[in-house]
Design brief:
heterodimer, A: 216 residues, mainly alpha, Cytochrome Bc1 Complex, Chain D, domain 2, 2 domains, B: 306 residues, two-stranded antiparallel ribbon, globular
Chain lengths: 216, 306
């Protein structure tokens, strides 16, 4: 159920995007960009842009436009590597990036249950998320990604509702150094301190944070 | 004759009543041992060891208050901070003023004012200065009790009255060149702004701060220990950026600490007769390195912000 204010906001933002830019972000999302190779986002990320969990394609809906635009620019420049996204991002124009990221940011993300740092934490994933592993200088995930991993500002993307396979792939890419486009290596040095089991556990934790699992 | 005596007595009494609002005169630190790379730090008990009884329950309440202070004790928190913002890892982390290092040092005698301060008074000082909370919770309040029990538990089996390695924020000596606000601004932009914001405003999700504001109305006030550049430099050197403690040079830590603490924040609650100068002389002149009451680039620092 999408809250009313979110719907109004989304509508307003879409309106704004369409009037402010000659490029239709919704069209880029559903049909792709003007140049060949600029495939429509929805083909892989889903009609609701919530990602495709079995394939590990990430959720884009509700992610900050600034974060999405940075990733597209990083794919373009090679600062972030991915065989599908790099050529795709190169085929998008600057205007198309601006428009489509605004469209995606305005799409509703999942409703995340309220989680507090004070609640008890059991299991490897939840402990990493809420307590960290400070003996290895690993902060609580929520201290940067926000309560329940909802994301904070443009630099700290949401983790909640991301497919576990996507989160595992990214953490492993940071661990082996193939992903390194985070500000000041803030994520890289954390990921390098995690074991393979911890990566799986914490990815599962955020992937499974759903409203119906909210605890009293 | 009686009246003559009663006059000064009343005045004394009045002064005491007024002073009752300030439980502990300042947040000056008990000296912390210097940091050592080889230090074997005290290990507080694990959460999983907590007993399932009234004691365990109270420890959990203290923990909850500690990490979720603004939400759990809004009447005593006048800014956007939580205890855990300055005491990382829920008050467990060495060199981040861990509670297991603080608790066994109280009651503490202080030569400076020939007073003995209790742990409860120290906590009240945190509420008044770091949390800019106005009248702090009473010494026997549920809040102070729960926080004290939490600290006691973290200090389980720690020796009493011993300065444990890793207590406080071990001193980082001021560099020979002093500090430079402009270089501090550059360090801030490069290392801190991504979390704490371009204007030190912190970052929120909904109504709650995730990354704490470093200056402005929602940050610690001019009486807080963290307003001292030396204290902030030590905190920053050991603990910032989050998870990357020790990565800044001493010079960078001092520069950025000075930059942060050159910005306005809520007024010192001990403000003397409305005078920044009198407050500077009484409380700041001999309190480490700080900019309160000084003029920087033509602007008087310490005017406070509401």
């Amino acid at each position: 159920m999408i809250p009313l204010d979110r719907m109004l906001l989304s509508g307003l933002m879409l309106l704004f995007v369409q009037s402010a830019s000659a490029v239709d972000g919704q069209k880029v999302f559903t049909q792709g960009g003007a140049q060949p190779g600029a495939t429509a986002c929805l083909a892989c990320h889903g009609a609701d842009a919530m990602g495709l969990a079995p394939a590990g394609f990430p959720r884009l809906a509700g992610l900050p436009a600034g974060y999405l635009a940075k990733q597209l620019h990083d794919f373009r420049s090679g600062a972030r590597s991915n065989p599908v996204m790099q050529p795709l991002a190169k085929a998008l124009s600057e205007e198309e990036i601006t428009a489509v990221t605004a469209t995606l940011a305005a799409m509703p993300g999942p409703q995340t249950p309220q989680t507090l740092r004070s609640q008890s934490a059991s299991g490897v994933g939840e402990r990493l998320a809420l307590r960290g592993a400070w003996e290895r200088q690993v902060p609580e995930c929520v201290s940067c990604h926000g309560p329940g991993g909802v994301g904070v500002g443009v630099a700290f993307p949401p983790l909640a509702g991301q497919p576990a396979a996507y989160l595992v792939a990214q953490l492993n890419a940071w661990r082996d150094g193939t992903r390194h486009n985070d500000p000041n290596d803030l994520m890289g040095h954390v990921a390098k301190s995690l074991s393979a089991d911890e990566v799986t556990a914490v990815a599962d934790y955020f992937a499974q944070l759903q409203p119906q699992e909210a605890r009293p | 004759m009686k009246l003559l005596i009663a006059g000064p007595l009343l005045a004394l009494l009045a002064a005491q009543v007024q002073a009752a609002g300030i439980a502990m005169e300042d947040q000056s630190q008990i000296p912390a041992p210097s940091a050592s790379a080889q230090a074997q730090y005290f290990k507080p008990p694990a959460e999983s060891e907590l007993p399932d009884n009234a004691y365990g329950k109270l420890v959990r309440e203290g923990h909850a208050l500690f990490v979720d202070t603004k939400r759990r004790a809004p009447q005593y928190v006048g800014n956007g901070l939580n205890c855990s913002n300055c005491h990382l890892d829920q008050g467990r982390l060495a060199n981040s003023a861990p509670l297991w290092g603080a608790y066994p040092m109280y009651p503490a005698y202080r030569k400076k004012n020939d007073k003995v301060n209790t742990f409860a008074e120290r906590l009240q000082g945190c509420f008044q200065f770091s949390m800019n909370g106005g009248q702090p919770p009473a010494a026997d309040s549920p809040e102070i009790t729960a926080l004290s029990v939490y600290a006691y538990w973290l200090a389980s089996k720690a020796p009493l009255g011993v300065e444990l390695p890793g207590r406080g924020y071990p001193d980082v000596a001021q560099p020979a060149k002093g500090y430079d606000l402009k270089q501090g601004a550059a360090v801030y932009q490069a290392q801190c702004a991504v979390c704490h914001g371009e204007q030190g405003q912190g970052q929120k999700v909904g109504a709650d701060y995730v990354m704490p504001p470093l200056w402005g109305k929602d940050s610690y006030n001019w009486g807080a220990g963290m307003h001292r550049i030396n204290t902030a430099a030590s905190f920053i050197k050991h603990n910032m950026p989050l998870g990357k403690g020790g990565s800044l040079s001493d010079q960078q830590a001092w520069d950025v600490a000075a930059f942060v603490n050159s910005h306005e924040r809520p007024q010192d609650p001990r403000l003397v007769e409305g005078s920044i100068e009198k407050t500077r002389v009484k409380f700041h002149a001999n309190d480490g390195v700080n900019l309160y009451g000084q003029t920087v680039e033509g602007v008087l620092i310490g005017q406070g912000i509401r």
